[in-house]
Amino acid sequence: MCVLCRVLRVAKSTYYYHQKCKSAPSKRELENKRISERIVEVHHKTDKRYGAAKMKLELEKHCIFISVGRVSRFMDKLNLPKMSTMKPQKPKIFRTAMRICQISSTDALTLSILIKNGSAILLISGQRIAGTISVL
Fold first, then answer.
1. pLDDT single digits (tens) 2-32
2. Is 79 in the same domain as 33?
3. Position 2 in a domain
4. What is 43-102 written as a DSSP string?
5. 80 and 111 share a domain?
6. For residue 70, is pLDDT > 70?
7. Residues 77 and 118 in one domain
């Protein structure tokens, strides 16, 4: 073996390292496989509704303590979709117009904004209010 390593100009430790890697999976690989299986199981059990944070809490019930970031990486690797629970934001010009005209969010359905040359024409229930709105 020493002669072969010398001819190939490879350290003996490198040869033995690669021999060891081929023989059996490491503890980390086995742990990753077990966690991946559990994540897929929980994901299907919860109707594909859990993101990384809730998935972490569910894994802790099964005595698997890992970080949210690691759960997120597993979910990305497994191509599991994450559910978004954030409320969609209205455009900034819309929020600014609501603030200027002191319109509550319940009346916001009747608000339309037409932007022309830096000024905005506000249409509120058929009434026209012309004014300039500066976007912050």
1. 788 888 888 888 888 888 777 778 889 899 9
2. yes
3. no
4. HHHTTT---HHHHHHHHHHTT----HHHHHHHHHHTTPPPPP-PPPPPPHHHHHHHHHHT
5. no
6. yes
7. no
